[in-house]
Structures are given as structure tokens and as C-alpha cells.
Design goal:
The chain is an alpha+beta fold and 145 residues long. It contains 2 helices and 8 strands. A 6-stranded mixed β-sheet has the order 5-7-8-3-2-6, with no helix packed on it. The longest helix has 18 residues. It is elongated. The protein starts with 13 loop residues before the first helix and ends with a helix.
Length: 145
């Protein structure tokens, strides 16, 4: 499930290039491992929903989150952070892109994977709207904390 692309130049013969290419390809497969951190559709985080039939929504990566790292690398393989506008406004369709997952590995470029809704959530009824209005009014009246 992994490909290694290699270009070898600057050697004196085709035999030397072949030998060096084989050595480098073998090293690439021995020295690195590929890990799937999260599967597509697997709920990762819960996001609050604004005036929805449900209070929260599970968000999942749109595709598998996979990293290739040196074997035996100590510490956490990657820094992950979710980015989305909170709260998510209802109604929400299943599979809708809500935000993205940021994946950073030391000495590598950031990778972004879209976060999608794992289920559809309809707009809330009268009670949801009344609760939201009360929360807004209380936030304006009461001091923070």
C-alpha cells in the first residue's frame, strides 16, 4: 500500500544506478512505517449545535488520516487539531464539510483533512429556540465566569 519514487543520476554506469536505486528503495521500506491514525467516517470530536434537534454533532475525517514516519521515532507521531466555526448552525446534512483537521509532523508541511458531519441534524423546535434566546440574554446580563 505504499509507493517510493526515486531518481538516481550522476553515476558512471547503468549498473551503478541500478545498484544504488535498489539500496535506496530497500532502505526506504525498512526505515519508515506507515500508520493510519484515524479512519474515514470514524467520529473524532463532538461539536456544539446551534438551535438544532440535537445538542451536539460528531465530526469525522472525510478520508483516512495516514502518516509515514521513521521507524522507532520517539514521542507523538503528529500534532492534531480540529478547526471549525462553533457552534455549528442547524440544519446539517450528513457528510457536510464542517471544518478541517490539521496534521503537523516535525520537519514536514501541514496536512489538512476535511471534517464532515457523521449524521444529519434538523433544525430545533420551539424549546431549542427558547433555550438559545435565554442563553443569549443571560450572557448579556451576567458577568463572565
Amino acid at each position: 500500500g505504499r509507493r517510493v519514487v526515486l531518481v538516481v543520476t550522476g553515476l558512471e554506469s547503468a549498473a551503478q544506478r541500478k545498484q544504488e536505486a535498489e539500496r535506496l528503495i530497500n532502505w526506504a521500506f525498512r526505515a519508515f512505517e506507515t500508520r493510519t491514525l484515524y479512519r474515514a467516517g470514524e467520529p473524532l470530536i463532538e461539536a456544539p449545535v446551534w438551535i438544532g434537534a440535537e445538542a451536539t454533532l460528531a465530526l469525522a475525517p472525510e478520508r483516512d488520516v495516514v502518516v509515514t514516519l521513521p521507524i522507532g521515532r520517539s514521542g507523538a507521531p503528529a500534532q492534531l487539531s480540529a478547526h471549525y466555526t462553533s457552534p455549528v448552525v442547524a440544519p446539517i446534512a450528513a457528510g457536510a464539510r464542517i471544518g478541517y483537521l490539521s496534521l503537523t509532523v516535525e520537519d514536514m508541511a501541514e496536512v489538512r483533512v476535511p471534517l464532515v458531519a457523521t449524521e444529519a441534524i434538523g433544525q430545533g423546535g420551539f424549546v431549542s429556540r427558547l433555550k438559545a434566546a435565554a442563553e443569549i440574554m443571560l450572557a448579556r446580563v451576567l458577568p463572565e465566569g
